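Help: read this over?
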Amino acid sequence: MHRDYDITVIGGGNAALCAAMTAAEAGAKVLILEAAPKPYRGGNSRHTRNFRCMHTGPLGPLVDDYSEEEYLADLLKVTGGKTNQHLARLAIRTSEECLPWMRDHGVRFQPSLSGTLSLGRTNAFFMGGGKGLVNAYYRSAERLGVDVLYEAHVAHLELDGGRVTHIDYTYEGCACRIAPKAVIVASGGFQADMNWLARAWGPAAQNFLIRGSPYNRGVVLADLLEQGVRSVGEADQCHAVAIDGRSPKFDGGIVTRLDCVPFSVVVNKNAERFYDEGEDVWPKRYAIWGRLVAAQPDQIGYVIIDAKSLELFMPSVFPPLKADTLDDLANQMGLPADKLRKTIDGFNAACGDTSAFHPTELDGVATNGLEPPKTNWARPITDPPFYGYSLRTGVTFTYLGLKVDENAQCSSDQGPIQNLWAAGETMAGSILGQGYLAGFGMTIGTVFGRIAGREAAAYAN
């Protein structure tokens, strides 16, 4: 191991690797400190599937085109306008050049997956998923001379005089200290710290599931915020989706997501509907459901579909509950059967002409006189057997993070911190104020990882 590193990158996921490779290609000697063991390296990136990419004309696996303005409009819709448009446009505009760069660094792509995602024009899917991407990047980083320490737990970055003077971490049971010329923080959010989540959300957070890495506990984030590094975002804003209620507490990943909501009726534990299941195509609206479920009693919801919808969405990792009658399904799910029957009967009565039903685009097949309405894909739940899933809030990453500028540089009230940059989920709140757009986290991580690596290397050199 080299002791005189130009740059230390904290974290081992997509943003960290993009930063490390970019810095190494600029001639810097780079060390990655990854908290996870080697088999679990990569943070949340190993659970990803795709990268949202602007393009003018076909690009790699992407068809047609996806303009900067359309991309931004999609982002503004899901965030309700709560975004830094300057940084958002930077991420969007730069994404087009990232896809060839990713391919040059070992990432392979495949056509978009079938089902309800409808992303063939906007999102490039990784061959082998996120783990394939992470492994490809580690191979490329090794060829570039990047060193990696696994199970290296960073405890403290010492800030003095507007710069980081050293990093304290533990490795193989020993306390270690390193003093690189520059530091890039790419260690994710704080979502795996359940106590921190509970401070932000209240006791309801104890019922949340964490889709991603159990190693993203926000230790470095908290350390820097306590020393006056500028923050961005709110502690109770996050990328949260509704996932299968039978998922593990941590690290269930992308496969725990359920894509059946648009074709279903969703009820709470009282068998009452609480939101429009057909509001928009799923990639644009799936991320609101985690927060919706979090607001229900006991933070749980239940999906009800019938036989004609079973093949319309990507298969779930756990098979659904199945019953020949709604009463039997209600009993299996612990729901009041009479109330569920009343809810489904009311929904069915509000459904009209379904001849225009189209599962992959907004079809306007809506309910009449029902509150809340279902504005698309509203077909009666009538064909046995009936199927059911439980839903829990699955947190992917939190948005409270380090505020950065267009160069990915961090700052305090005294001005820019000379040798500190941030990339990925730990600064995503600089762009994402609320909501989420499928594949955009990988866009942020790739774009700002490369920027951070470039800027840190220029400073170190």
User: Anything to note?
Assistant: The first helix runs from residue 14 to 25. Residues 47 and 325 are 36 Å apart (CA to CA). The chain has a mean pLDDT of 95.
